[in-house]
Amino acid sequence: MSNERADVRSIDAIDRFRVSVVEFIDAGRVSITEADSDLDRNIIWLEREQAPYWTRQIRKRQELVTRAKSDLYRKQMQASAKDGRASVVDEKVALQRAMRRLEEAETKFKATRRWARRLEQQRITFKASMSGFSVTVDHDLPHAVGLLKKITENLESYLNLSPPDLHRLIAPEEPAGEEASMRRTGEETPESKPEDERPTENQS
Predict the structure, then answer these.
(1) What whole-number distance in Å separates Cα of residue 196 and Cα of residue 72?
(2) Within the chain, where are the H helices?
């Protein structure tokens, strides 16, 4: 029987695969965090910046519409006093422009609120859909990495073992004590004589 060792040549491949899994875990966690942060950032931008901004714009533009109406009314009164010969074209154009800008602000405000609600719904859907992937990245794959590391360590320990001395294992055991010593010197062990050969007291 020849001395043989298991043909294990893939420890480096296992270790490289383990490193790849670790890199995938890191990339997966970063992707989840970035996607969630992007949604949060956009929701905050819509709710805390855009909605208040367009609310202020609505108030300002309502004031401009009120002022444009006052200017038109005053100019019309002046035209009536002058037999309708005063022009009110500029005042009408200014009022129309102010009303268009007010309508734009109201549209923007409604769109802001609508998109904020939609993104909030998408964030909830995103978290629900990514829950399984999060478990894989945070639990399953790290567990697999630990198993791969243990496998590598066990294989390395196995390869570092010395092969057994088969000749020593199959050699016969040597007798111990005085008998073994006598065998090594070529002497025979004393044997007891039969009872009929022993001298008796009656023999002369």
Answers:
(1) 158
(2) 11-44, 51-81, 89-129, 131-135, 141-159, 166-170, 177-185
Q: Mind giving me the DSSP string for 95-126?
A: HHHHHHHHHHHHHHHHHHHHHHHHHHHHHHHH
Q: Tokens standing for 10?
A: 């893939």
pTM above 0.90, yes or no: no
Which residues neighbour 43 within 8 Å (Cβ) at sequence distance 6 or greater? 116, 119, 120, 123
For residue 88, the one-letter residue type is: V
The domains of the chain are located at 11-159
Q: Tell me which residue of 114, 125, 102, 123 sits closest to 50, measured CA to CA.
A: 114
Residues 140-191 have pLDDT tens digits of 999 999 998 898 888 888 777 766 666 666 656 555 555 555 555 555 555 5
